[in-house]
Amino acid sequence: MGSRTALTWLTVALAISPWAISARGAEIPSDAAINPAAPTMTLEPKVVVNSGRLEWAPFKRDLSSWPTLSHEDKRDTAKTRKVTMTEPLNGDAARGRDLAMRRDKGYCVICHQLPSEKWPGTVGVNLTHFKQHKYPDAAVYQEIFDARVLNPNTAMPPYGTNHILNDQEIRDLVAFLQSIE
Do 50 and 115 have their domain in common? Predict the structure, then answer.
């Protein structure tokens, strides 16, 4: 982040700290990407091409009530949910690919490497050649719905438990992942 952007963000953060906003009984942490003056309160970083800087812009949805990765975040999280996917899958791989590649929604490509993506994330596992693993559809569905079932310390959001994605969107993502040669 550039010094001007960092200074602006720090000034805004200091002006509104301590956070008066609270969700689920605890305060939002001071290092959360939140600005109560923004239309949705939630901010997202935008890369300023060829500058080495990030700028912060309002995100399309208000995510302030969601848990953050901050060590300061003491708010309760939704309980882990084990689900059973009913067969058949009936997912659309093309729609799943569109979802996976949407950076504005914070989906797969933000954290995972996917085929033909020039700016993939490196936090999650590499998803290229996913089909070779031959995971059952139900296991992939559960991982997207709530990965905490198998890994309580995962950084992957519980997309189904937190109602970020609906049932059909998860099925579409499963179909896409299962199609990646």
Answer: no
